[in-house]
Each structure stands twice: as C-alpha cells, then as structure tokens.
Amino acid sequence: MEILIQLLIIVAPLVICGLIIGRYNEKKHFANVNERESAYEGFLTSQLKSYPGAVLPAPAPPTVVVAEVVIASDYLKSFLSGWRKIFGGEMKSFTTMQERAKREVILRLIEQAHAGGFNAVCNVRVEGVDLGGNTSRQKVPMAAVIGSGTAYHAHKAPPVSPASPVSPGSVA
Questions:
Q1: Is 171 contained in some domain?
Q2: How far apart are CA 172 and CA 165, in angstroms?
Q3: CATH of the domain at 47
Q4: What is the pLDDT along the chain (172 residues), one digit of tens a residue?
Q5: What's the Cα-to-Cα distance from 45 to each of 51, 80, 90, 100, rounded to whole Å?
Q6: Does the residue 62 lie in any domain?
Q7: Parallel, antiparallel or unpaired: strands 44-45 and 120-130
Q8: Going along 90-168, which residue ranges are E strands?
Q9: Is residue 109 situated within a structural domain?
Q10: How many domains does the structure of the chain reveal?
C-alpha cells in the first residue's frame, strides 16, 4: 500500500503538469492562429475552380501555392485517448489537433500568396494524412495536412456602408 501511495505522489504531479503544459501550448497556438487570421480578414479564399472576381488583365499570372503542416499529439493525450477508445466517445484532443492543422495550412497558403503579391486564392484543396496513429509501432498520433490552391489577383470588394444597406435581390 505504501508503494502505491509513493507512486501516486510521483505520477500525479507529472500528469497534472503534462495537462497544464499541453493545454497552455494548444491555447497559445490557437491565439496565434486567430491573430494571423484576423490580419488576413479581407483575403479572398474559395474552393471554386474558377477565379471569382479576377482582375483582367491580371498584373501577374496565377500561380500555385502549396503548404504542409504536421502537428503531433503529446504522450499524455495519446494515453488518455486510449482510455477513451475503450469506453467510447469523441476524442476531442485529436479533433482539436486536426482543426489546428487545417487552419494553419490554410493560413500558410494565404501568407504564401500574399508574399507573392496576390490577394486571393481559389481552388483550395486540403488533404489530411495519418502519419503515425495506426501505421507505426509506437502509435503517436500526428495530424499531417497538405493544402494547395491557386493564387491570383481579385477586385477588392466595395465596402458596405451602414447608411445604405443593400438587400439581396434589390436593384441599386
């Protein structure tokens, strides 16, 4: 019994420390992504294969942008999700990991297009890959997301004036 108590005294602080540090890093990354997304708020992104609002003739020809992100889960979340797998339910830590990777790859596409002087990306494709959850021996889950799109120049949307709202279907 005494050995069990000593083991709990050693393990419990490590588990709590792992939870705190893991959540802190995840929140910090989400805050960073939110800040960067707000900086590119007016940037046009679309899954359409055409060029919505394209400037013709374009100052520069459209170009392909590609980005890749890999985010790994920590061992504590992997261990706890193993218990979740036994009892059933959503593995929220993996869902947030996948969300972080997807948002990060779209941001990297936008940043790469902006660095090339473009203000829009169309034909955005995002693909996820399992890099270690089911295929490796150690089974450390990772979210690998690859994104691609076509960067081009688009007309800037006119600002909507609160004094003269335009409803859909109305003729100006």
A1: no
A2: 10
A3: 3.30.110.70
A4: 788 888 888 888 888 888 888 889 889 999 999 999 999 888 888 998 888 888 888 888 999 999 999 987 777 777 777 777 788 777 777 788 888 899 999 999 999 999 999 999 999 999 987 666 555 555 667 788 999 999 999 887 544 444 444 434 433 3
A5: 10, 37, 30, 18
A6: yes
A7: parallel
A8: 120-130, 142-152
A9: yes
A10: 1
